[in-house]
Each structure stands twice: as C-alpha cells, then as structure tokens.
Design brief:
20% strand; 4 domains; 35 helices; alpha+beta; 44% helix; seven-stranded mixed sheet; Cytochrome Bc1 Complex, Chain A, domain 1; nine-stranded mixed sheet; 29 strands
Length: 958
C-alpha cells in the first residue's frame, strides 16, 4: 500500500519507517465513517487488535465501565449471553479483555493464530457496534446495578460490587479525590469506573444513550500490531463499518487551567481493632503538562526517582528521619490528556501536615538553590532510560502494550508514534542533566504551591458503617415511595433476570461463535531448550534468546531454614542491594545499581517437593542489563552477595515499615491471593513456606518487627548475617543466563564453597482450617481447596480443561452472574494445589456452598455428552503460553528445578488435547476431596464473615 491508496474502504494517509522499533507505522482512515486506524507493522507472531472509543464521563455513575462489561454480553451476530466468556473458553487467545480509563474505553485482543485472530476481531467488532443491550435490559441490571428484591431490598450488580471493592482501597479514594480537585472543569473530576454511591443514579435510558453517542465508528481508533494479514484484517473491519455513515465526533476535552490552591479532607475505613494514630495519608498534586510534552514528562519521572526512588533519596530520607511518615513517594501520572505530579506521605497524622510541608520545602529549596547531585541524577536518568527501552518489561504482551501506548497521544489528536519513540527525548534529557532544568522543575512543581491541591485521607472506624447506613436509608426511602404496581414491576424484573440468567443459550446461538478445530492446534508445545553446563563447580543454565538485553538469575538453596526463619529470608531480600557493603555505602551502592544495572531484585522463592511434607526454598537474584554493562553489573552483584553489611537498624526498620504498609494495602485489594496462600499452608510444606515468605504470617511478622525494640531488630540483623554466610555459597548456587552473557563473567561470582543444603526443606502442613481474615471492606474474597498429593493424586494435562469448564461455565454463571462477584475461578497447579476462589464477592458464604456443587456439575456435563472441543482449545495456552525472554527463562528454570522435562510437557499437552469425559469424571474425585477436606479461608469485613456462619470458625486480623 502507498499513501492515498484505498483498500477495503480505507485511505492510506501516511506510512513511516520507525527504525527504533524495527517497524513501519501505517496510518489510515475509513473514508465512509472517518474511523481512524493505525497498523504498527512489526515482526511479531502475537498479533493485537484493539478498538477504542473516546468516552467522556459527565458524572460518576460509571456508565462507561458498565458499558465496557455490557457490550460483551451478546450482540446481533452472536446472540449468546456472553460471547466474551465463550471466547475465553474456546479461543487460543493470548489476551482478551476490555478496559475503562478516565477518558476512553478500549477493547483489545491478541492471538498467535491467524484464523483465531480474525475470529476474535469479528466478535469484538460486533459486540461494540451491535450489542444486545438495546433489546436485553437484563444485561444492564446484571452488569450495572439492580434491586435485589426481598423483605429489605439491596443494590446488586457486577460493576457495583467491583467498585465497592475498589473503594475499599485508600489508593482509589486518594486518586479520585485528587482528580476531583485538580480537574474541576473537565471530565477527569468524575470517577469513570463509578462511585458506588452514584451508580444507582444511572438509568437504563441514559446507559443506552451513552452507547449510541460514543460507540460510533466516527469516534473509533483502531489499532493493529504485529505480523498481521492486512488485507484480511481491513476487509473484516470494513465489513462492520460500511453500514455506518460519518457523524460528528468532536469529543474534545478542554485543557484544565491551573486551579487555586485547595485542600480536602476525606475519611477512609480502617478495621475496628486498628489504631487511628499514624494512619493518615497526604497527597499534594499539581498539573505537569499536556500529553504532547514528552520531554517534561521524562524529566519529571527522573526527578521523582531522584527525590524518593530509594530510602537514601533526599526527600524520602528527610521525612523518614524526622519520623513524619512511614513512607513518602513522588509520583507522575501520565495516561490522560494532562499529566500531573504529586508527593504523597503515608501513615502519618493530620496535625503533622504543616511540619511535613516545612520539611519538604526545606529539602527542595536547598536542591533548587545549590543544585542536584550530578552522580545521583545521572544514575536516576540511566535507571529511567533502561525502563523506557525495556519494551518487554511490563508483564503484558508487547504488541498489546504498543496498541495501548499509541492512544496516549493519538486519542487527543496527537501523533500515535510519539509515545512509542523514546530515543530522541532520552537523548535530549541526557544533554540537559547538567543544566538548571531540574532546579527549575522543583521550583515550579513543588515550591510554588499557588496551584497545588492537597488531599488528606483520615482513618475512620465508622465511615464504612456510615456508608452502609446511607445506602440503607436511600434504599428504604426508594422502597417507601414504590407503589404496589412499581414493586410488582420490580419483582417481575428480578424474576425475569434470574430466568434469563438461568436459561442456557440455545445450541444454534452457541454455534455462531467462531471456533478453531483441534486440527488447527500445534502438534506439540514450544520447547524451551536449556543447555545445562558446568563452570567449575557451578551449574549453569544457558538459554538461547534473541534478546537485546542480558539476563542473569542466580539461585541459592535455603532448604535448611526453620519455619520461623522464613520471614527473615524475605526481609533479607529487601535489604540486599539496598544495605551498604564493605566497599560502598547504601546510597553509593544504589546509585551504582541504577547506573550499571538495568534492573536488579532479590526474592525469596519456594517450589514443591517430592510430597506434601517437603518443598524447596531459595533466594534468587534477578538481573537485567545492557550487554556493554555486563562486567560491571556482575561485579556489583558479586559485591552484594559477598559483603552486604547487615547492621543498619534504621534501614531495616524503614524497610519493614514500608513493607508492612504495602501488605496491609494489598490484603484489601488482593485478598484472594492471601486466602489462597493461607489455604495452601493447610495442605503442603510449600504452602507453609509461601505463607511465611509472603502470606498473612509474613504480613503480621512485618507489622510486629516494624514496631519492635531495637534489640529485637539487632537479633534479626544478626540472623540475616548468619543466613547470608550460610546461603551464599558456591555449592548452593545455580546460575541461569541468556546466551549473550560472556560466560567468563560468571567467574566474578566466585563464592566460598560452604556447606551443602539438604535436598528438601521439611515443614508440617497445618491441616484443614476454616479461617476468616478481617478487613475493612463491604466485599470479600473466598478460597476453598486441597492438594491432590494429600490424596495420592498426580497432575495430568486434563486439569486445565477442568479449570476452563468450571471457571467459565459453572462458577461464572453461579457466582459472578447470579451472585454479583467481580471474579471467580478454579486453579489447579502441577504442584498439587487445587482451589476455588472468588474476588470482590458480596456473598462469600453463598459462594462457598456453590463450589461444593462443582463435582456434580461436571458429572452432569459428562452424562449429557457435551462437546469438549472448545474447552480444550481454550486451555491450550496453559501448557503453551506466550512468553517473552524473561518469562521464558523463568518457566524453563522452574521446570529444571522441578525435574519437569520437555517430554513431560508434551505428555501433558497430549493429555489436554485428548481430554475425554472419562478423564473429567476421574478428576471429580479431587472436587469431592475439596468439599470433604473443608479447608477454607475468607478475607472479608465482619458482616460478611458473620454471613459465612459455620463455614468460618475462627477469625484473625493482619
């Protein structure tokens, strides 16, 4: 194609080579509708399609969040209740989801299979342009909100419950408050996800009107990334767009002018047993610039790292040393039309705000007057530059991230390539390191407070009850105003919804969903070959990659740790690379790491053993750097391993306090993870290790040690010193590296021989419990599980098919659709853990009863002779996942340590592809064992734990 060419209704407007990405960018416009399309033509077998609409909220009812969910619940061409779920069950997709942002709604999919990719495009295009919402009001009531009728009506709905969970997090409350203060004249003052107090204000008519207004091709931005068959893709897209005419779609967001300084105090809920002292959070924010000002955003990001990127950063050190807060961070928010920058102090007291402001001003005024330390500034620049160049570092498929990143400029009329290209702004920033750029930014963004806004989040024991009371009073007032006819109509709506939810899709409707055949699958999963060699006495795993970065992971066996020492191992991983060494102070070391290593982190790790009584405990160092940095990077890692100084009590206390704060936040946000880890401890030694390394026990230990006497922390430091001397030994070490690392550099890692570790760590499983972990939230998380090794079971490739069926049919319908939980599912790992979970669940007690019916559901499905083809297709990625260099190395390493061979993976793959009803019936035994073992952990508020009744027999706090 050439500029001005026309293909399937699209005119080519511009074609550019992007050497930085080894790609070509095509910009096209659909002539009939004005829909804009960009294709980032880059060699990548994982192809991504995305259609995005600029969606401008006019209130906090969450209409666009509800639409995001709802349009995926059936369409004209695909008249099933949830095509999205059908695709999750039956597609070989590598990504399938949708996202609501403050000013856009995005529908991306990706797949490595060409036919599957076109199928996914077809379903998503019909979903957004021809959704069933216009003739199925039940969708709005299910996904948005409704009255759950009874003696006392309550609000119910998937998004309603999701946002109740989100508003249980202080971070959500803080961001919402700051946006309202910073952007009083634009759409960003509203909560696009929906404020639970406002969601019931949304009517079905308003819901439809917003779809009609914003979900039109003239307002669409369509992205294609990867090795796409462009002619087939454009023909597919034009097939949907050609029936529409061009409409005005000028949804311009006005630029917010700086506001007068203002402050707002907002309450957030903490548990009744938690003290209020030292739990206030303060955030001071100011506008930074527009989406187009990449130079300014890059400079502010480097400045943020300089000020608070580590515990020796000047602003963080000042606040911590003065005892004015548990943590402090400078953050830059950049994914909307206008970016903003803020400083935030966590776990302080409201009356300390003047002192905090004074301390911050003192530090920043000195930096502005005297200048920034050149070495620290260069180190922070190098660290930021590496993060921008590491295009596989997000954890999501690269093609997906590129599709989303283009919108950061394109949505506002800017160049879609701008946010993808980093070399020129990095080069310019490097040239500005020795100028007064950063001093000027400090004066403008932080010292001039005339346009800053301040949000003060104050802890409250009663705000949760007050919100519940307000909601109950609103419901009571609404119910009191209902006429008998209105009540009858609402009751009829509720009955119609239940009937609709419980009525299976017809076979005819299900057959409309496009699906591959088993013959379209690979004959075998991708191999991850590892060359296992020796370098002296050290085992070396070398991975063949095409990576532009060097990757090095070093594993140390720690199987001789007692259970009580495991939390110390996690705390030790926090100090490594942070505490000083014999050669460098803490501050010097962290600057060197930022200068010479792209990324370095230490992590306590656990793996399953030969049975439930045994496991493997490791401490892992993970490093990535540029090839030319290899020698210095490995040298720094060796220095840390050989000579870290575990004597800085103040540093340890700061690290423990910050980790305890993060754990407390995470428990409310990701309670299902803590519950799943806890249930694992009931069943296996590895579960016990995980619980002590990163679960509730670790969180409690962090909280206790952060407040402990100096003598206690001195003992912890002495234990670390002892563990380091024991663990960091040559005969406990396994090295894993990408093949672009010069193997001679591994000699730099020479360590003492030391004493060998035992083959296994031995920890006694706790046995089944029925525990509740109390959090201040109005939704909860429930987990119930077992370990099949407890019952003589073993892993087979049929488990992923079982997981697929139960997660996206039985559990989805019973717990998410009818029960209103935001998420639910079954996990089954080859280490033996099999567990049901729910996420942001308004009825965890009900859900625990539902999961006990899973075995009967499978037996009924098998008795009916249901076709398993789709379930098999949708499970393939479990054993043949999309992997980048980092994740491929991690998977290969894990297989090596577990003794899993490629032949094993091929056997599992064959079992998966040939899963039969007989295989599923055999796995029902494990589901029966989950019900019989009754190993339960629920993370929820007190009222929800009360509703669990006898399912929860003991309660714990963090």
């Amino acid at each position: 194609m050439q500029p001005c060419a026309n293909l399937h209704g699209f005119a080519v407007k511009r074609v550019r080579e992007l050497p930085e990405l080894a790609a070509k960018l095509w910009e096209l416009e659909h002539e009939k509708t004005g829909a804009q399309l960009c294709w980032l033509d880059r060699a990548d077998e994982n192809k991504t399609f995305s259609i995005a609409f600029k969606t401008i909220p006019q209130d906090s009812t969450g209409v666009f969040h509800i639409l995001e969910h709802s349009v995926l619940c059936g369409s004209d061409k695909y008249p099933v209740k949830e095509p999205f779920v059908n695709l999750l069950k039956t597609s070989v997709q590598t990504f399938l989801n949708a996202m609501t942002y403050p000013d856009k709604t995005v529908y991306p999919v990706s797949s490595r299979n060409d036919r599957d990719f076109l199928n996914l495009m077809d379903v998503y295009l019909d979903a957004v342009l021809h959704p069933a919402i216009y003739h199925k009001p039940e969708i709005f009531r299910q996904e948005g909100w409704r009255y759950e009728m009874g003696d006392t009506p309550v609000y119910q709905g998937v998004v309603f419950n999701e946002m109740k969970g989100a508003y249980s997090s202080p971070d959500t409350v803080m961001e919402s408050t700051v946006n309202a203060l910073l952007f009083p004249d634009t759409c960003y003052r509203y909560e696009s996800g929906g404020d639970p107090a406002c969601i019931p204000d949304l009517t079905y008519e308003q819901f439809l009107a917003n779809h009609k207004k914003f979900y039109h091709p003239s307002n669409a931005r369509i992205s294609l990334v990867g090795s796409v068959d462009m002619e087939a893709a454009l023909a597919k897209i034009d097939g949907f767009l050609k029936d529409f005419d061009r409409e005005p779609a000028d949804f311009t967001i006005p630029m917010q002018q700086p506001v007068a300084a203002v402050a707002r105090r907002v309450s957030y809920e903490v548990g009744a047993e938690e003290p209020l002292e030292g739990r206030t959070m303060v955030c001071c924010a100011t506008l930074l610039g527009s989406y187009a000002d990449t130079d300014r955003y890059f400079a502010a990001s480097v400045l943020a790292d300089y000020l608070t990127g580590d515990n020796d950063a000047p602003l963080k050190r000042a606040i911590l040393d003065a005892g004015l807060g548990q943590d402090v961070n400078v953050n830059v928010r950049s994914d909307i039309q206008q970016s903003w920058v803020s400083w935030e102090v966590c776990n302080t007291d409201a009356e300390k705000l003047p002192e905090i402001r004074a301390a911050i001003r003192t530090v920043l005024q000195k930096l502005a007057d005297e200048g920034l330390d050149a070495r620290r500034l260069e180190a922070c620049y190098n660290h930021f530059a590496f993060s921008q160049r590491d295009r596989d570092g997000s954890g999501f498929p690269r093609s997906l991230m590129e599709a989303l990143t283009m919108l950061d400029s394109w949505l506002y009329g800017g160049d879609p390539a701008q946010p993808l290209l980093v070399e020129q702004p990095l080069e310019k920033l490097a040239a500005d390191l020795n100028t007064d750029l950063f001093a000027g930014l400090i004066r403008e963004l932080f010292l001039d407070e005339s346009h800053s806004v301040t949000a003060v989040l104050v802890p409250s024991h009663t705000v949760g009850a007050e919100k519940a009371k307000n909601e109950a009073e609103r419901l009571a007032a609404e119910a009191a105003a209902w006429t008998p006819e209105k009540r009858a109509a609402l009751q009829k709506q509720a009955e119609e919804l239940i009937r609709w939810q419980q009525t299976p899709d017809s076979e005819e409707a299900v057959r409309t969903i496009p699906m591959l055949q088993l013959s379209d699958l690979k004959q075998a999963p991708e191999d991850l070959p590892v060359a296992v060699t020796k370098r002296g006495n050290i085992t070396v795993l070398r991975h063949k990659t095409n990576a532009s970065l060097v990757y090095l992971n070093v594993y140390f066996e720690a199987n001789d740790l007692a259970e009580k020492e495991l939390p110390v191992l996690t705390a030790m991983s926090m100090l490594l690379g942070t505490a000083g060494t014999k050669q460098h102070s803490s501050e010097e070391l962290q600057m060197l790491i930022k200068q010479k290593i792209g990324s370095l982190r230490f992590q306590a790790n656990s793996l399953p053993g030969e049975d439930v009584e045994h496991c493997r405990v490791q401490l892992v160092a993970r490093m990535a750097c540029l090839p030319e940095q290899g020698r210095e990077a490995v040298g720094l890692l060796a220095e840390i391993l050989r000579s870290t100084d575990f004597s800085d009590r103040k540093l340890l206390r700061d690290q423990l306090s910050q980790a305890a704060l993060n754990a407390q936040m995470n428990l409310a946000a990701n309670g299902e993870e803590y519950a799943e880890i806890r249930v694992g401890a009931y069943n296996s030694a590895r579960g016990v290790a995980r619980e002590s390394l990163c679960g509730r026990e670790m969180a409690v230990w962090l909280k206790e040690q952060a407040a402990a006497a100096d003598t206690v922390l001195d003992t912890v430091l002495q234990t670390m010193q002892t563990l380091a001397a024991r663990i960091f030994a040559e005969n406990r070490m396994t090295v894993s590296c990408s093949d672009n690392l010069d193997e001679e550099l591994l000699d730099i890692l020479a360590l003492p021989q030391g004493s060998p570790a035992p083959k296994w760590a031995v920890y006694a499983p706790w046995g089944a419990r029925q525990e509740g972990l109390t959090i201040p939230a109005s939704v909860g998380f429930a987990v119930k599980g077992t370990n099949f090794k407890c019952h003589g079971g073993s892993f087979s490739g049929c488990y992923p098919v079982l997981v697929n069926i139960l997660t996206f049919t039985y559990l989805w319908g019973e717990i998410r659709v009818q029960g209103g939980a935001y998420g639910c599912g079954l996990i089954a790992r080859n280490d033996g853990d099999v567990a049901f979970y729910t996420y942001r669940d308004p009825q965890p007690g009900r859900s625990l009863k539902i999961v006990d019916g899973a075995a009967q559901y499978i037996r009924d499905l098998c008795a009916a002779g249901s076709d398993l083809t789709g379930y098999i297709l949708g499970s393939v990625s479990t054993l043949d996942p999309l992997l980048n260099t980092r994740t491929a190395m991690l998977v290969a390493e894990t297989r090596y340590f577990k003794g899993t061979t490629y032949a094993d993976i091929c056997r599992y793959y064959s079992q998966l592809v040939h899963t039969s009803h007989k295989d599923l019936l055999e796995l029902c035994r494990v589901l029966d064992e989950i019900a019989a073992d009754n190993a339960v952990c629920v993370v929820a508020g007190k009222a929800l734990l009360d509703d669990c009744g006898a399912a929860v027999t003991s309660r714990l706090n963090i």
